[in-house]
Amino acid sequence: MAILQEPIKEILRLQNYVDGEWVDTAGNIKDVVNPATGKVIATVPISTKDEIDEAVAAAKEAFPDWRRTPPVARARCLFRLKELLEENFEELSRIQTMEHGKTIDESRGETRRGIENVEVATGIPSLMMGQVLEDIAAGIDEYLIRQPLGVFGIITPFNFPFMISLWFAPYAIATGNCVVIKPSSEDPICQSKIAELTEEAGIPPGVWNVVNGGRTVVSGMLDHPDIKGVCFVGSTPVGRDVVYKRCGETGKRVISQAGAKNFAIVMPDADLEHTMAACMTSFYGNTGQRCLANSNLVVVGEGLTEREYEAFYSKVVDMFVAAASRIKLGYGLDEMIHMGPIRDKTKKERVLGYIEKGIAEGAKLRLDGRRYEITGDFPDTCFIGPTVFEDVRLDMAIGQEEIFGPVANMMKARTLDEAIEMIHSIPFGNAASIFTGSGKWAREFQYRVECGNIGINIGVAAPMAFFPFSGMKDSFFGTEHGQGQEAVRFFTESKVVIQRWF
Ligand code: NAD
């Protein structure tokens, strides 16, 4: 077993990054623990209301000059940032594994996806262009220009500690706004590293700020009159009842991307070998802690006799259990590992609670993640193995609530219609996948399913940076989404000018 070198060798003392300066908090500090080794790797500030106010004031002050900086010059800063992120690619990826627990390959994928957003935002001189129409009436022209608004707040979850701020921040600053980022206090290290690189990239003081902390910082953002809009990614109760609600009350723009419970539908004509490979990544990648993770697998018997359907269902479930049993657990810095630990002990307890509930509600436990082996000598606090339940129904808690761990539910539907009804019966609408060889079924699925991100023979339907990261129902609150052209629209005001010269 060869563990890659850890980039964090002694406990980091994280600070806030405000107005180009690294500052301590007057509030408390909290430990950041590597979930695989159980070691403290950093301390993070839990900032006060005054500290978020200071950051917003610095961002507001930086805004007029940054706004006047030509888009092409702002883009050059992003080109430099992209180069610096590439130079630090491996270190940033290993830090993600240390602070979150995901495997190094998953971290490298996350780093790549984050950098792609910086790449797209470098196109801002083209992306931000307006529109003109001559002669809307005799001798009168009309045009639309896109202008930045000021200061935006960005609040991110624990499950992608590097990438998620980059769904928003590069577009916000490329369009001439300033940002204050509040990372998850559970794994905030990468966001400090990115802030260091923004400084090196020549992004002026006050344009990119990081204020660490929890609810106080979030409330401070939501209530602040100088914050024009908020981007939030996290759970539905916070995204809907705290962020979206308060932004409505305080008149702010909002992108609020929230929780999920995603279905994979397997049709009788699916290529089962590829389907299983895609399902392993989707159900167990990131240890199931992904908003795009599939959680319910529905085996569909469309066109089959009862006997054929039973045989097909058993085959799919057996293949799934066999593939899941081969997943190796351990420290993500070991490149031979397939799955890391859950982010922390409390989250593990929550997942174990769902396994207990599933058993109590009568689902059949085919693979018990409470029994597992860890490759290497690591404390047994946050690990949990791949779990498979059979005979899961939608009235069970495991069938309809977001578990956010490596638990897969096997379900049945006689027809595609029935499977689509199952998807629609739960409140979430983040993602859904269909595995089939039939264009007709795939089109029907894409046309009818009320989910923002659809996979056709794809397990993790993750939109690339030049497409919006979508979501529907209780998985998304707002109008424009993060990434690409929609982010550019979110971060700009459309101003219309009508002119006539005498
Ligand atoms: P979370 O809602 O607990 O926390 C998200 C952020 O909000 C964090 O920065 C946290 O500090 C802050 N926060 C938490 N509770 C708060 C409160 N009561 N008031 C104010 N702020 C609060 O989410 P999490 O556990 O960090 O992340 C997992 C969740 O995020 C899952 O539900 C997952 O589906 C979702 N997620 C969604 C997407 C998407 O694009 N739809 C992407 C990634 C994660």
CATH topology of the largest domain: the name is Aldehyde Dehydrogenase, Chain A, domain 1
**How many discrete domains?**
2
- Please write the CATH class name of the largest domain: Alpha Beta
General form = globular
* Distinct ligands, ions and cofactors found in the model: nicotinamide-adenine-dinucleotide
What is the mean pLDDT?
98
Strand order, main sheet: write it out. 16-18-19-14-13-21-22
End-to-end distance: 80 Å
Largest sheet: 7 strands, mixed
Secondary structure tally: strands: 25
CATH architecture of the largest domain: 3-Layer(aba) Sandwich
Would you identify the CATH H-level superfamily of the largest domain?
Aldehyde Dehydrogenase, Chain A, domain 1
User: What is the SS-derived class?
Assistant: alpha/beta
Strand content: 15-25%
> Uncertain regions: pLDDT < 50 for 5+ in a row?
none
* Tally of alpha and pi helices: 16
- Helical fraction equals 25-40%
Radius of gyration: 24 Å
Describe the structure.
The chain is an alpha/beta fold and 502 residues long. The chain folds into 2 domains: 12-125 and 149-258 and 475-492, Aldehyde Dehydrogenase, Chain A, domain 1 (3-Layer(aba) Sandwich), CATH 3.40.605.10; 262-456, 3-Layer(aba) Sandwich (Aldehyde Dehydrogenase, Chain A, domain 2). Helices cover 38% and strands 24% of the residues. It contains 16 helices and 25 strands. The strands form 7 sheets. The protein has a 7-stranded mixed beta sheet with strand order 16-18-19-14-13-21-22, with helices on both faces. A 6-stranded mixed beta sheet has the order 10-9-8-11-12-24, sandwiched between helices. Helix 9 links the parallel strand 11 and strand 12. Helix 10 packs across helix 11. 53% of the residues are buried. The model has no long low-confidence stretch (mean pLDDT 98). Bound molecules: nicotinamide-adenine-dinucleotide. Nicotinamide-adenine-dinucleotide (NAD) binds next to helix 8 and helix 9.
